[in-house]
Amino acid sequence: MPDTPQPLCTVTADTLVAADFSPRAGRRRPPGPYGRLFSIRGTRAFTAGNLVARLPMGMFSVSAVVMIAGTRDSYALAGAVTATGLAATAVVAPWIARLVDRHGQARIALPAALFAVLGSVALLLCVRHGAPDWALFAAYAATATTPNTGGMSRARWAHLLRGDPAALHTANSFEQAADELCFMLGPVLAAVLCGTFFPEAGTLVGAVLLLTGMLLFTAQRATEPPVAPRRRAPSPLRAPGIPRLLTAFLATGAVFGSMEVVTIAFADAHGSRTAAGVLLGLQAAGSGAAGLLFGTLRPVVPARRLLPWCVAAMAVLMALPLLAAHLTPSLLALGAALLLAGMATAPTMVTAMTLLQQRTSADRLNEGMTLAVTALLGGIACGSAVGGWAVERVSATTGYAVPVTAAVLALAITLAPFDRTRRVAGSRAPR
């Protein structure tokens, strides 16, 4: 007797009713893993809202710099304001994520996003009406309550696809590609808006997109994961392997931050500052394409064993821009090297996020993923500082050694064993 095709998900009282892909349902089986992923009822709606809300994450800092520097004629002030916002985010974001885990996405994320939007509007008005400098710092710090939209989206996938690691791997790969797309398009959109209309346009549009996207996202209550019963699990910072994993995220963030600064400096040194955006866009495009391809594969190695291989590939490929910069001043060659270098980024991030999900208690999942994003942001800040120092003290060409060094450091961190301590109660089994 032939096997009967099975539904993708099990129908339960407290979860979303998944689409049935069997021939009896009268529907053709969707082609490919992504087609099957988005055939689950409600996933397209919450993904659309999430993408709209996530796009401003790549807009706000660029918009703030252009707006403040253009009106106050001080890049130092603009940089200090955005750095203050980053520091505030590192403190506030895990707290917001903890509240989301305890009370649900809709109850916390929407008010938090509204408060962040008010902070953006306050910054816009302060700049527009010549408020004192301290008011700029206070207003931009208020935007730190912006929820981790990517983390909440991953939490929804983890809820909908529990028990199906292959589909969850595809979902995590898609989310990483979405991150790359938003951080690639966000700065470009911000620069176009600020340059075409008025200096505050990028901040204004970003605030509108954030609030609109969050309204759409939180309205999808059917796919929202229920609040997990509290098991008195310790903070993710105390879960086995998580501190080491967050340190790896920190080093990986340093790769991104230093690569951005050094690439801008290299393009500027060769008389084409405007080409820097295209070069960085190629790196993000390579990462996004690799992430989507990675999502179609079924990993046969556990995440904890796969991660060092992914980081090793990233370390090797990050050497390509260094070689290209030393061998030729051609921006075309550098662009090709950055495109290839970006291809190891998404698989590394997907695998690291999967490992983090496996080792974080279910009732603190958003908090764990937000800590990872915070570590990345901290690494980006450190990498930007070290990359800028290397460019000024040595050269932009030699500056490409900084991301290579950061990638090697991340590799050394991931090569250490993750299972030296007992697994936290309520967390997923290590894989």
Automatic annotation (TrEMBL):
SUPFAM superfamilies: MFS general substrate transporter (SSF103473). It holds the Pfam family MFS_1. The chain crosses the membrane at residues 51-69, 76-96, 108-127, 244-267, 273-294, 306-325, 331-356, 368-391, 397-418. Keywords: Membrane, Transmembrane, Transmembrane helix. It comes from the Bacteria. Coiled coil: none annotated. This is MFS transporter. It comes from Streptomyces cadmiisoli. The lineage of its organism: Bacteria, Bacillati, Actinomycetota, Actinomycetes, Kitasatosporales.
